[in-house]
Amino acid sequence: MINIRGVSLVYNQGKQNEFCALKNINLDVNNGELVILKGVSGSGKSTLLSLIALLQKPTSGEILIDGTNIAKLPDAFCSEFRHKRLGLVFQNFNLIEGLSVYENLLAPFALTNFKANVREEMIKRALELANIAHKRDENVSNLSGGERQRCAVARALSMDADIILADEPTANLDRDNARAFLGLLESFKALKKSVIVATHDSIFDELSATDRTLSLRNGEIV
Ligand code: ADP
Ligand code: MG
After folding, report:
1. How many angstroms separate the Cα of 65 from the Cα of each of 3, 41, 48, 92, 212?
2. Taking the model in full, what pTM does it have?
3. In sequence order, what E strands does the chain have?
4. Number of Cα atoms under 13 Å in the Cβ half of residue 30
5. Per-residue pLDDT at 215
6. Which of 46, 199, 218 gets mutated to test ligand 1 (max ligand atoms within 8 A of its CB)?
7. 3-state SS assignment for residue 142
């Protein structure tokens, strides 16, 4: 489903501080596969996720999702594609402070045209899947770290995306909450989501649902 072919990413191309962050990456991720992307800080993990998430475009190579080369999608289609197909979970969770859990899930729907009753059902389901429905009306600024993350996971699930990308999802969690996140990942498998987790947290060694573990070093898969 995701085919990455000969992808390179050069930051500051042509400038004195030019830096090649990814070098000739080839990677296929099948439907429903759970892939762990390991590597020390600076190895290129976030850069690779950002390309799959259409947050930037590769300098060369192609990224096919169900056969569509997303590196060639016009910008106008990128956000729509991201909304429909991708759920993103970031290290710092990227929640909108001052809003409730429910309102954080509601915000991305402003860019869609789901009917209100369908939308409410989607939000309800995501809150339940991520085990945060009991905090629906709480201001996210009052949540614990683990709860904040479950809110971010619920948001990533709300549009029923089939690809979930998580960048250092356990970096800001205590070990109990990190293990709870591993449990959530296992439930994604049951939902047939394709999941790519970038992490340098060794707790992922405990995750039996992992299909494949890859290592990045200096922008290359080793
Ligand atoms: P990781 O997520 O594995 O820690 P990153 O993908 O964030 O690694 O970064 C890989 C390399 O690319 C690092 O050396 C980093 O300094 C560099 N880099 C990341 N983002 C930028 C940017 N916007 N401009 C220039 N260099 C960057
Ligand atoms: Mg990173």
Report:
1. 6, 27, 14, 26, 19
2. 0.93
3. 2-11, 19-29, 34-38, 60-65, 68-69, 86-89, 163-167, 194-198, 212-217, 220-221
4. 5
5. 96
6. 46
7. helix
